[in-house]
Amino acid sequence: MRRGFFERDPAAGDRPVYRLRWISEEVLDERQRNYARFVRYLIASGRLTEFTEEPTR
């Protein structure tokens, strides 16, 4: 599996936005490329976030 990390985007203003940066490795196979596309989709659509929902009491 390919490794990566999130870095904060300084151009995002007040809202913390993070970008996924891949660590350079060998060329991805088709399955890994599909996983990467899906993660990028989740990030772009705002469905992947650093925050967790707090349970209501």
Describe this entry's structure for a reader.
With 57 residues, this protein is α+β, with helices and mostly antiparallel strands. Helix content is 26%, strand content 18%. The chain is globular.
Detail the topology: elements first, then pairings:
Elements: E1 4-8, E2 18-22, H1 30-44
Antiparallel strand pairs: 1-2
Descriptive key words:
single chain, two-stranded antiparallel sheet, globular, 26% helix, alpha+beta, 2 strands, 1 helix, 57 residues
Derived structural class: alpha+beta
What is the percent of helical residues? 25-40%
Give the SSE string: EEH
User: What does the average pLDDT come to?
Assistant: 78
The Cα radius of gyration reads: 14 Å
What profile does the largest beta sheet have?
A: 2 strands, antiparallel
Q: Let me know the number of strands.
A: 2
